[in-house]
Design a protein that fits this description.
six-stranded parallel sheet, three-stranded antiparallel sheet, 13% strand, 12 helices, binds zinc ion, 2 domains
Length: 320
């Protein structure tokens, strides 16, 4: 029978030693990460004290409203103004957490990195199998013809970026409020978790649907939580470490594979490809975490009336 490792007592060092041990014993690890992974690269999260939601938006609108499908369609200029000021961090660099995960992947142990972040830092660090639940600001596409554009194009233009082929409006391939996650990404994430023998959840307070529910797909309780603040899963997790995700992963993941040959893992990139998706780039409020699904539904009607059809079509085109 699995005995729970000591969650409370014990210095950071002993917890890291426990994590190291768990990693050594596991061959199919999945990492699920949130904003806390990126804050250590200087990218603010959405909800934290210094988070984007608590900052002045610089407009009469609230940040949480601006990052919605309806707002984007109705006020693209204001959206892009806010977007460029608050959501784009083209100079951010991967931190210790991203790099440690790449090591683990190269050692053949980490099978998937599932992220709620839209900043491309896992890929920038070298991760191969990344599932971006909320899309990425590094990918953009024309809503009319589907032509794809890199972030550079957005940065090189002011105001609303338009397609240089057909003149259509370009949108980021990220999931806005009221939009749904790309099914394929969610399926890939769940599939990976079902096969995992260890799930490491880091840098997320687990209040965001659907990531908050992913742990239920594990057939065991081998969950490690690394987060500065507590999460609802803390008490059920095998090991909980309230500390910097970068520091912890860097210490716990060996610089080189222990002994046997590295099986330099996978090279699929589920989720990096498309994603013209939907739903939120960030989280629901804590107060609503009890029924995140409900909030999702509440917001749906608004999404319907917008132009999801069109978006879907262009998205398809973009995939070709
Ligand atoms: Zn176009």
């Amino acid at each position: 029978m699995e005995t729970r490792l000591d969650r409370y007592a014990g210095a950071k060092e002993s917890k890291i030693a426990q994590l190291r041990q768990l990693i050594e014993e596991s061959d199919n690890i999945v990492f699920l990460g949130g904003a806390g992974v990126s804050t250590e690269s200087g990218i603010p999260d959405f909800r934290g004290g210094e988070g984007i939601y608590n900052q002045e938006s610089g407009t009469k609108y609230r940040p949480v409203d601006i990052i919605s499908h309806t707002f984007f369609m109705e006020h693209p200029e204001e959206f892009y103004d806010f977007y460029r000021r608050k959501l784009l961090y083209p100079d951010a660099k991967p931190n210790k957490a991203h790099k440690a995960l790449v090591r683990l992947e190269k050692q053949g142990k980490l099978k998937a990195t599932i992220t709620q972040n839209i900043d491309n830092l896992h890929q920038a660090a070298g991760s191969k199998t990344t599932i971006e639940l909320h899309g990425s600001v590094f990918r953009n596409y024309c809503m009319e013809c589907g032509k794809k554009f890199k972030l550079d194009y957005i940065l090189a233009h002011e105001g609303i970026p338009y397609c240089d082929k057909c003149g259509g409006m370009i949108r980021p391939d990220m999931v806005l409020y009221e939009e749904n996650l790309e099914h394929e990404n969610v399926d890939s994430a769940i599939k990976a978790i079902k096969k995992a023998d260890l799930l490491i959840i880091g840098g997320t307070s687990l209040t965001v649907y659907p990531a908050a529910t992913f742990a239920q797909f594990l057939k065991h309780d081998k969950v490690v939580i690394i987060n500065k603040s507590s999460t609802y899963l803390d008490l059920q997790a095998l090991l909980t470490i309230h500390d910097s995700i970068g520091e912890v992963l860097d210490s716990a993941i060996p610089k080189r594979a222990p002994s046997k040959k590295t099986a330099s893992g996978s090279s699929k990139t589920t989720g990096t490809k498309k994603t013209a998706a939907k739903k939120t780039p960030a989280k629901k409020t804590t107060a609503k975490k009890a029924s995140p699904k409900k909030e999702e539904n509440e917001k749906k009607p608004a999404a319907k009336k917008a132009t999801p059809k069109k978006a879907t079509t262009s998205k398809k085109a973009a995939k070709k």
